[in-house]
Amino acid sequence: MTDKEKMLSGKLYFGGVEELMKERENARILTHEFNSISPDFYNKKNEILKRLFGSLGDNFCIEQPIRCDYGYNIHIGENFYSNFNLTILDCAEVIIGDCVFIAPNVSIFTAGHPIDHELRNSMLEYAFPIKIGNNVWIGGNTVINPGITIGDNSVIGSGSVVTKNIPSNVVAAGNPCKVLREITDDE
Fold this sequence. Notes:
Blueprint: H1 3-8, E1 13-14, H2 18-36, H3 42-52, E2 55-56, E3 60-62, E4 66-68, E5 74-76, E6 80-82, E7 86-89, E8 94-96, E9 101-102, E10 107-109, E11 111-112, H4 117-121, E12 124-127, E13 130-132, E14 137-138, E15 143-144, E16 149-150, E17 155-156, E18 161-162, E19 170-173, E20 178-182
Parallel strand pairs: 2-5, 3-6, 4-7, 5-8, 6-9, 7-10, 8-13, 9-14, 10-15, 13-16, 14-17, 15-18, 17-19
Antiparallel strand pairs: 1-12, 11-12, 19-20
């Protein structure tokens, strides 16, 4: 099994292999190109994002700058908006549903490192997928950790650190992020 196959299957892998380094370099080139374009060149920016991401709905707006590891593991639905400074470490799949709004300075991390210092010092790492449902709003300066699922219609408050799955139809916030309440029909 190659290190890329290990990475994509959630096993420990070495990210310093040539194949993965070249793929990260390609993503860096595309994000640099995207981030360097004048904000009013919408079509050119969108063309770059379609080359970078694994899939992307037709209706989206992603503010500059963005950062990602590979790009091809990112799948975004329709009616997506991301404000400034979105960072996605996509060593595993990141699936974002329809009608998702992301505030500034949000970080989505599929990548992690072993707790055991000997394994960590050997430069091994792991990656677990992240899924964000439909109609989700993620507040500014939020961090979403590896392996997390955020359910449909939920709101994540600003400054949250999401370390556990968040169900559908709730408002959640904090460090660590916890469900504060259910969303009612009156809202």
